[in-house]
Amino acid sequence: MHFGEYGVLMQDNIMKRSFVLLFVFLNILPGVYASDTKIVKPSDLPEIEEVEKIINNKGTIEGVVFTIYESDESSLEEIMPRLLYYVSIIRQKHKIIPIAVVSHGDEILSLTTENKELYPIVHTDLIKLVKSYDVDFHICGSFARLNDLDSADFPDYIDVVPFGPTQISDYLALDFHRIDLETSD
Predict the structure, then answer these.
(1) Same domain, yes or no, for 105 and 128?
(2) Residue 180 pairs with which residues in a beta bridge?
């Protein structure tokens, strides 16, 4: 056997193993989303019909953008459990569609690094959304600036965009399905 033939055989083996690993990874990854049993189903799910339309959609879904615009800093304490639940059930059915959140009201004040201790569950759920469920979480930089805040005031798992409504428009231009999340008050 020449060194050249050996190199070709090694390359073939590496390619075969790479495809096997890719196949295993793609089959295991969906189980990661579906197996999260720590997600508690909230008792109040006002947006569930819109979420079920996405889950039951047999066609192509370009993506989902959840929007939040509240006048109460603490509103994410109510909204975040629903958001986490909705994302978890969407991921069980549609494992790779893009999901984003755009938050552009007073609720962003709870997301500062300084307020992490005041709203620990909100931050824990947000980290889970971003890291475990691959959600892009954006907040409005313009609204932050109105409150004397900038991107350095927020943890790195939050994306501060120039203007929340423009970010929403950009997602809608990509044919994302929009779901507005609101408090029950």
Answers:
(1) yes
(2) 67
